[in-house]
Amino acid sequence: MKNKLFLFMLVLVMSILGACGTAEKEESTNGEGSATEDKKVLVMGTSADYAPFEFVDTENSNEIIGFDIDLANAISEKIGFKVEVKDMDFNSLIPALQAEKVDFILAGMSPTPERDEVVDFSIPYNETVQMVVTKKDSGIEKVEDLAGKTVGVQISSIQEELANEVAKTVDMKVESRNLIPEVVQELMTKRFDAAIIEDIVAENYVQRNAELTYFPVEVDVADYKVAVLPEGSDLKAQFDQAIQELIDSGKIEELQQKWFVVEE
Questions:
Q1: What whole-number percentage of the chain has pLDDT above 70?
Q2: Which of 8, 41, 210, 241 has a CA-to-CA distance to 68 between 20 and 30 Å?
Q3: Phi and psi dihedrals of 207, rounded to 5?
Q4: Residue 39's Cα: distance from chain center in Å?
Q5: DSSP 3-state assignment of 118?
């Protein structure tokens, strides 16, 4: 009798464990990023202080939105992966990529020789112009007027490199901040006399603030935006093909119209 009772209890326990295992299996194969969907999740590093490329939608969802987010999703549709966005300071992005904390970067980033030594770049997806942003009452109307002034830039950016290059011929002081909103805040409180910011981002600030104006900085080589990938990554060829297809189909232009054209 005891043996029969023991066998009955053993069968009951095994049945319960088997049912639990089935439920767990069903959950793991039907959820997001599941085996049935068979899509790899790639982590995208970005710095969400750079509207309209990437910024936090504080008015609605508090999610990170922008041109680069839409571009990443469009690329993902082409080559079959899901995007998980990881926000961090701009100067932390390439170290995070090297440490394999992110799989790629879309952050309004431009290629430079220094960056090229440690990462790979996709083909360009957007050309940009650098602007000097000032307050309208500053008296600064050309680069030469920056002499004796303090100019703000984002740390580790091509604008920082450009400002330091300009400072070789124009006697100005260059100061860096982690985030673009910090740079603009310093400008608004007159701790900075001017700031160097790229055209699309600068235009957004000027459109929202009647006290600000801007003018372009002439450079010898055009600046472009690219996706940034680990050195030797197989993703580069896939990204290049997807971006080219998005350019050829007009999708990139569609996203530019959505995010870059400021309504009057």
A1: 84
A2: 210
A3: -65, -30
A4: 22
A5: coil
What angle do the packed helices 235-249 and 67-79 form, to 10 degrees? 110
What sections of the chain are H helices per DSSP?
2-30, 67-79, 93-98, 113-116, 158-166, 180-188, 199-208, 235-249, 251-260
Cα dihedral: 70, 75, 76, 77 (round 10): 90
Q: Are 196 and 164 spatial neighbours (Cβ–Cβ below 8 Å)? A: no
Contacts of 37 (CB under 8 A, 6+ apart): none
Under 8 Å between Cβ of 108 and 50: yes
Residue owning tokens 């360009």: 124
User: Residue 133, SS3?
Assistant: strand
pTM score? 0.80
Can you list the positions of beta strands (E) in 109-233?
Answer: 119-121, 126-128, 130-135, 150-154, 173-177, 194-198, 212-216, 223-225, 228-230
Chain-wide mean pLDDT for the chain? 87
Spatial neighbors of 243 by CB under 8 A, at least 6 apart, are 75, 122, 123, 125, 227, 252
Among 155, 152, 210, CA closest to 184: 152
Q: How confident is the model at residue 29 (pLDDT cuts 50, 70, 90)?
A: very low
For residue 227, pLDDT beyond 50:
yes
CA distance 198 to 181: 13
Phi, psi dihedrals of residue 138, rounded to the nearest 5°: -75, -25
Question: pLDDT-derived band of residue 261, with 50, 70 and 90 as boundaries?
Answer: confident
Residue among 160, 197, 189, 156 nearest 175 (CA): 160
